[in-house]
Design goal:
This protein is mainly alpha-helical and 180 residues long. It has eleven helices and two strands. The chain has a two-stranded antiparallel sheet with strand order 1-2.
């Protein structure tokens, strides 16, 4: 995969793209894990591959999905995080969030993967849906989560505190209950 991504940086791009069509259809899980392990100089082709592969893997009801996602998580947390956000936007939260929470539970001990997502993702809808579901299942304490996230997401710029989490969260929640 690394060699193919390197070749895709040249005039061979169309040929590489065509060559990858078969594994994208026949074994997206293998291509996904291999692609996550690669650190190419030109990331555009990698991102295109991942955008096409993750939906296939995440929608697969097979029993090996967790193993594939765990390998992908270990190789490229950012790619898996982005895929989870896209999955959350495409699939109703009642379906997507429990699955994501279950996968996170198995990625790392002590819910470290869940805490990584809750601390690092800026998509307010995704974070709040995930946090509220985790709270409802006694995995996290919502009050503690908000305190920590608020403390970590305020930027002091020339003595001015800019809230990058609290106000967007309130706006999102207000829109969910129809206030705006």
């Amino acid at each position: 995969v690394a060699t193919l991504l390197s070749l895709a940086q040249t005039e061979l791009y169309p040929g590489v793209r065509n060559l990858l069509e078969v594994p994208m259809q026949e074994c997206p899980d293998l291509l996904l894990t291999a692609t996550c392990r690669v650190r190419p100089i030109w990331v555009e082709m990698k991102n295109q591959l991942l955008e096409n592969l993750f939906p296939k893997v995440l929608s697969n009801p097979g029993m090996f999905v967790l193993d594939v996602l765990k390998l992908a998580w270990d190789a490229d947390k950012e790619a898996v995080t982005n895929a989870f956000i896209v999955h959350h936007k495409r699939v109703p939260p009642k379906v997507s969030i429990p699955k994501i929470l279950k996968w996170c539970d198995r990625f790392e001990p002590g819910n470290q993967a869940l805490h990584y997502l809750l601390a690092n993702v800026n998509d307010i809808a995704f974070v709040l849906e995930l946090a509220s579901y985790a709270h409802a299942n006694d995995i996290i304490n919502m009050a503690n989560f908000f305190k920590q996230r608020m403390a970590n997401n305020s930027v002091d710029t020339f003595g001015i505190i800019i809230d990058t989490f609290g106000i967007p969260s309130i706006n999102y929640l207000a829109s969910k209950i129809g206030m705006y």
